[in-house]
Amino acid sequence: MTAILAHACGGGSHPARPGADAGGPAQPDLGSIVTGTALLAGDLDIAGVTTDDVIAVVDPRGGVLALPASGGPAQTVDPAGQLAKAVGPVIVSLHNTDLVSGIGNVTIWTAAHGAVPFINGATGAVAVSDDGTRILATGQTSSDATSTTLVLGGIDGTPGTTLFPIALGAGCGPAMLFTGGAFVVAGCPPPSTTATVWSIDPTTGTATTLLTSARAQLVAVPDAAGDVVLVDASGNALLAPAAGAPGRVVGSGVTQVALVPDGSAVLLLSGGTIVRVPTGAGDPLTLAPTGVIHISGVSPDGQQVLYQTTEGLAPGHGDLWVTTAGQAGPAASLSAGPDTTIFHAPFTDDSQWTLYFTGADLYGVGAFTVSSIAGGAPAVLGPGGWTVASAGGARVVFTDAYTPIAKRPGRGVLRVADLASGAPPAIVATHAGATFYLTHARDQVLFSFNDGGPQSGIYAAALP
């Protein structure tokens, strides 16, 4: 696996965009506008925000910093840090990084324990326990990047425990998450090129095999049992408790798994159709017509699903349809073009609006478009759109007028809109980092700003 530490919003990620590309269509010069509270001055980028609202900041000249979103001084995570991300309450930083393979040395930071060197030769794959005390990562990656090792440790600086090696390569991951009181890892035991899925005790490191001959993909179900959906090499989907009890087959010929947000069901793409399978009692239900190639998103209330039937410029690009996810029903076409895509948020939090990008180029830059579930013509809110986040109700925060910057995250115009009000979007900042983050209360947007002047820095702006 190449480095997964990046500056992109979670939930969807854009391919790396070359700095020489032109970005979206030419936009009028809006001048220099920035609102909100300045938290830290400088030419800086945001790489994530922890669950306790500490911002992971990348300073190209000063490494990786931890900056409280509520205000206060920044702490140094890693003075040599090149890449960063936030996982739960932990900021993860990589330095001495090979930017081709993504392998580097990991330092972790938490508010409780500060900066702690964790492991060298890491791929960047990381999972953190729900209580924020235990971390699973890779390390000691071979010089030819064909294998790595799982390492389990605490966030307090106690030495990590080496578990076992995992091969690197196509279909081998590793993928990892924490659910149901255990780490779940998918990877290939060397020299195999077929994945195995293990449950790992966060305290002892004891590994229990959940599935052999698996695909290296994991979907955690937010139910009381802490289940995960696994898919074997033949396409059989299994619902299995993360702690290691036997699972049950819930589908066959499965090419994709999506989750109903409340955990009451999983959606399986099988043979070109979408099948809703209850995680508890109940019978499977076929939802969509045949010819589906990709499930693009499920609404927060679990009642709508987006899907594609054509392959466009890149994976995730194609036409876009919406149908009901709770019962079989008719489908409606949202976009017939092969250049429609979704990044980060497919729906508003109230599940009444779909959010997507039309006319998108290979890197996902397109016209930010919204459609009401109730019907009516779609509306374009911003050309040259890069990403969008749902911020409560029908409120959205997005960037448009994307402009690339060589070897740095691009910039754009940061806007907020309440789709229920019908009012035009309001500008939060021009010259803003094209990726941004919300506080966990969703009452502020955290972003970088750089117009080349003294106001450049990291900002927090209250959302109306």
Description:
This protein is mainly beta and 464 residues long. It has a single domain, classed as Methylamine Dehydrogenase, Chain H (7 Propeller). 0% of the residues lie in helices and 51% in strands. The chain has no helices and 39 strands. The protein has strands spanning 37-41, 45-49, 54-59, 63-68, 75-78, 83-87, 90-98, 103-110, 114-122, 126-128, 134-139, 147-154, 161-167, 175-179, 182-187, 195-200, 207-214, 219-220, 227-231, 237-241, 248-251, 254-259, 265-270, 273-278, 285-286, 294-298, 304-308, 318-324, 331-340, 353-358, 366-372, 379-385, 387-390, 395-405, 408-418, 426-433, 437-438, 444-449, 457-462. It has a four-stranded antiparallel beta sheet, with no helix packed on it. It has a four-stranded antiparallel beta sheet with strand order 2-3-4-5, with no helix packed on it. A four-stranded antiparallel beta sheet has the order 6-7-8-9, with no helix packed on it. Strand 24 (273-278) and strand 25 (285-286) form a beta hairpin. It is globular, with a radius of gyration of 22 Å. The model is unreliable at 1-11 and 17-22 (pLDDT under 50).
